[in-house]
Specification:
The chain is of the alpha/beta class. Helices cover 34% and strands 26% of the residues. Strands 6-7-8-3-9-10 form a 6-stranded mixed β-sheet, sandwiched between helices. Strands 2-1-4-5 form a 4-stranded antiparallel β-sheet, covered by helices on one side. The chain is globular and about 55 Å long.
């Protein structure tokens, strides 16, 4: 595996819901072991694009794609590709914490058991909770309900649950938008730490958050036909200081939203 090769290569990607085109002709690459932020106004297709990377849109009967996404050099949407296996390799953390109504232990063990994990489950659960910076807070209450945790703890538990199956990529859809400022900073710090071992793609509506946590930023907008398209993608430092597009500059300086 070539660490310099992009982990995702997106070519002429369009996504439709019935006749409505939600994404239009997206071309981009996602760099391995980097945090890529997807930014843009509401309705520009950020979350839709994110869900293309682990085929979550397959779960919507009216959704279909044109174009191609390569994952590790292979066509992500090839008929022979098992979407369930893809979702174990490409984990997802949602906007609102969504722990199962089970114990903390059983939440993290869930994916391991479904995938027939043959190793030491206790060890894997501790590893995942440590990676999610939650172990010290919950190690003495693993049998307690996950629903008793605070919002920030619940979101870190959901991250631990995604990490347990050892994915290669973690997709995050506004993971801190439902959290208070202290919990938000904890999630941001965690995201930066995780990028040493994982490729992370994060949707955020928060410009400051994108600037703080990401290595690369992709800015999307919706056209007159409401189709989301990619305006600009580059190093976060460049996007926020010397954007190539006037539309990018107008958005990040707050002249439109």
């Amino acid at each position: 595996m070539n660490d310099d090769a992009p982990i995702f290569e997106v070519s002429s990607l369009s996504l439709y819901y019935d006749d409505f085109r939600a994404l239009k002709d997206i071309d981009m690459e996602i760099r391995r072991y980097a945090i890529t932020a997807l930014i843009g106004p509401s309705g520009c297709g950020k979350s839709t694009l994110l869900r293309c990377f682990n085929r979550m849109n397959d779960l919507i009967p009216t959704a279909r794609i044109e174009g191609r996404i390569l994952f590790e050099g292979s066509d992500l949407y090839h008929p022979d590709v098992d979407a369930t296996e893809i979702r174990s390799r490409i984990g997802m953390v949602f906007q609102r914490p969504n722990p199962f109504p089970k114990s903390i232990y059983d939440n993290v063990a869930f994916g391991l058991k479904i995938n027939g994990y043959r190793g030491d489950i206790d060890e894997a659960i501790e590893r995942s909770l440590r990676q999610a910076a939650l172990w010290d807070e919950v190690k003495d209450r693993l049998k307690d309900s996950a629903l008793e945790l605070s919002g920030g703890q619940q979101q870190r538990l959901c991250i631990a649950r995604a990490l347990a199956v050892e994915p290669e990529v973690i997709l995050m859809d506004e993971p801190a938008s439902a959290l208070d400022p202290i919990a938000t900073l904890a999630i941001e710090e965690l995201v930066r730490e995780l990028s040493e071992s994982y490729t992370i793609v994060i949707v955020t509506h928060n410009m400051q958050q994108a600037a703080r946590v990401s290595h690369e930023t992709a800015f999307l907008m919706a056209g007159e036909d409401r189709s989301g398209y990619l305006v600009e993608h580059g190093a976060t430092s460049q996007i926020f200081t010397t954007p190539k597009s006037e539309r990018t500059e107008a958005y990040i300086t707050g002249r439109f939203s």
